[in-house]
Amino acid sequence: MKTSLPAKLLQALSPWRNAPAWHIAFSGGLDSTVLLHLLADLANTETLPPLSAVHVHHGLQAAADAWPAHCQSICNALGVPLRVMRVQVQPGASLERAARDARYQAFTEVTGAGQVLLTGQHRDDQAETLLFRLLRGAGVRGLAAIPAQRPLAGGYLVRPLLDVPREALEAYAHEHQLKWIEDPSNADPRFSRNYLRHRVFPALTARWPQAVANLGRTAEHLSEAQGLLDELAQLDLRAAGQPSPFPWLHLPSLALAPLCELSDARQRNALRHWLTPLTRLPDSGHWAGWHSLRDAKGDAQPLWRLADGEVHRCGQRIWWLPTTGSEFSDAAVSWPDPQNPLELPGNGQLKLIGEAPEGPLQIRYRQGGEIIEVPGRGRRDLKRLLNESGLPGFVRGRLPLLYQGQQLLGAPSLAGLWRAPSDDWHLHWMPQTCDQGLS
User: Fold this and answer.
1) How far is 180 from 31, CA to CA, in rounded Å?
2) What does pTM read for this prediction?
3) Binding site residue list
4) Quick one: which residues bind ATP (predicted)?
5) Which residues fall in the annotated binding site for ATP?
């Protein structure tokens, strides 16, 4: 027996029935109009979370100026509150991607803790996405195409119509005499997805009528395969996730040795999983940077540059350093009142705990050749002490040093394994957190 569209929608949304709210991404097009109508109709007979609609106005074409009013009239008729959000689309190589980024940033602002944002992508969209990414040479994660659900802000993005063919949505819309917007840009074959939709898929389905359904099923298989790869990555990262010897340095890091025991393919799989929340992933040609970093000599300190930061190797550990707008300054900073914490430009905060030495005091950064007095060991070369401590090289240039005139009095006690220079006081440095990064 064929399941009705409302029953199929309710089944898809059953895990989210207790969410605080459901927001419908409402462009005014066919897909979102059907989704909104279905949910508004179901709310008359079912106990659903509070419904609201969100229309994102990109301002990319003159015709779009009339769409918020159209969406408002539909929502008024259905008794659903509407929020219109105007966004700025950043110029770039791909207008489609820039508009999508702006749209999802707006959705992020709307979706509160535990709330659900619902979008109207359907089975034909899934097939187009799979073929589009296949032609771009995507890996398994990309070929898994559109996920039915994923985290969004503090809640979730859910696509409850992903198993529904477009023709079923059209039939529902005509049956209920719905009116929707036809975006003129959807007919422009210069956009890749439109080219696939209007030129490629008609030819495919003429020869293979089940092409769309079969591609959707392939995406499900690939999504399952990606789930298995994710489970394997979690196992491998657990072995490499042994605690850092510098717990105060709040940056993601991994032990290198457990990774090196894996095959190249498993290394890439584990690193993709680790890097996914941190940066855009490298394409196939950029993995040579990982091999160079991994295979460098033990005393080298190589780095691998990625889109949103760098992976550094220090000894037998790799560290992630995000790119940030925070500018670190290595200029000297006076510390007229060491009883109060000192804010270091782009470098966190420094506290002096205990009885401060006589001033005037100043914070400087390494220039090379520094000598420091270590109780019980005499005057020692700072570079050698840092080498003994194993402190990562990317931190050493940021290490705040306390000077009295030309005399180096001390460095933060957390930076090395040697004793503080005085029992009367010691320095406590709090670097910037991982969210701020170390630029």
Assistant:
1) 9
2) 0.78
3) 27-32
4) 27-32
5) 27-32
